Structure formats: structure tokens, C-alpha cells
From TrEMBL:
GO terms for molecular function: DNA-binding transcription factor activity; transcription cis-regulatory region binding; zinc ion binding. CDD domains: Fur_like. This is Transcriptional repressor. Zn(2+) binds at C104, C107, C144, C147. Its cofactor is Zn(2+); Mn(2+); Fe(2+). The lineage of its organism: Bacteria, Bacillati, Bacillota, Clostridia, Lachnospirales. The keyword 4Fe-4S does not apply. It holds the Pfam family FUR. Binds 1 zinc ion per subunit. GO terms for biological process: negative regulation of DNA-templated transcription; regulation of secondary metabolite biosynthetic process. The keyword DNA-binding applies. Fe cation binds at H98, H136. Keywords: DNA-binding, Iron, Metal-binding, Repressor, Transcription, Transcription regulation, Zinc.
């Protein structure tokens, strides 16, 4: 796990939340699976391994609470499922932007893209309009490297 259980406890307490096993387990599962964009059911399946008596409704309530407290982010990847990921953490009062998503239209793979190249645009927006951007979400649709290579390989075989 990339973040210690103690850090999670501290974050919950800072937000005025009780530290419960359910909350810790949901945060731990999301931290341990940063590369996946998990549904509540995905989280439930993994939490249930360590805490079999937990119910799916508890996962939904916990995720909603953590979302409201900005400890997790909700993502819509246009696949009909609401997904969650552990939020980016705070430096003082300023929130870091979270990563963007590259979505393959062929296989559905979702890749995170961490470079935030929109800082200059945000400054321009604020200078031009007085609107202060707090956060943004960006999705790029295309083909992943593997699907592109597979397509190019298939096209070469067809030409021959």
C-alpha cells in the first residue's frame, strides 16, 4: 500500500470522521488498486475478502461519505458505471489536480495520464474572466498502443 493506515486515520480525523474498519478498508483497497477505476461492487468484492460480514450498502454509504469529504473521486468513463479512485491529497489547503484518462475506443482500456498541461489555460481563464478554476477533468478517446499495433499488423497482412 502506498499510504499507511496511520495516514488514512489522520485524514479521516482531519475531516471530522470516525475511524472505522469499513472506511479504512475502502481507502486501502482504492490505494492498493490505483491503476484500476473501481465500481462500488469491485470495492465490495475486495473488502469482503478481509471483512466478510460487510454489506454492499455499507460500501455505497462509505464511498459516498468519502466522496463528500473529498478523499475519493468519482469518475464517469462513459461505460454506464460509476467508478471511484482514491483522491489526490492536499498540500495545505490547495488541492492537486488529479490525473486525466486516456480511453481506448477499441478495447475499452483506461490509462491514466498524469501530466497536467492545463495550468497555463487555467491562469488564462482566471486572468480573462476572474473565474478561479478549482479542478478539472479531462478524457481523451482514441486507440491504445496495443490496439493500434494489432490494427496495423492486420492491415499489413491484408495488403499482402
Amino acid at each position: 500500500m502506498s499510504i499507511s493506515k496511520e495516514k488514512f486515520k489522520e485524514m479521516l480525523k482531519e475531516k471530522g470522521l470516525k475511524v472505522t474498519n469499513q472506511r479504512l478498508l475502502v481507502l486501502e483497497v482504492l490505494a492498493d488498486h490505483r491503476d484500476r477505476h473501481m465500481t462500488a461492487e469491485d470495492i465490495y468484492d475486495l473488502v469482503k475478502e478481509d471483512y466478510p460480514e460487510i454489506g454492499l450498502a455499507t460500501i455505497y454509504r462509505t464511498v459516498q461519505l468519502l466522496l463528500e469529504m473529498q478523499l475519493v473521486d468519482r469518475i464517469n468513463l462513459d461505460d454506464g458505471c460509476v467508478r471511484y479512485e482514491i483522491g489526490e491529497f492536499f498540500d495545505g489547503e490547495e488541492r492537486h489536480h488529479h490525473h486525466h484518462h486516456l480511453i481506448c475506443k477499441t478495447c475499452g482500456k483506461v490509462l491514466p495520464f498524469k501530466d497536467d498541461l492545463l495550468d497555463e489555460l487555467e491562469r488564462h481563464i482566471e486572468d480573462a474572466t476572474g473565474f478561479h478554476v478549482l479542478d478539472h477533468e479531462l478524457k481523451f478517446y482514441g486507440q491504445c498502443k496495443e490496439c493500434l499495433e494489432r490494427q496495423n499488423s492486420t492491415e499489413k497482412h491484408v495488403e499482402v
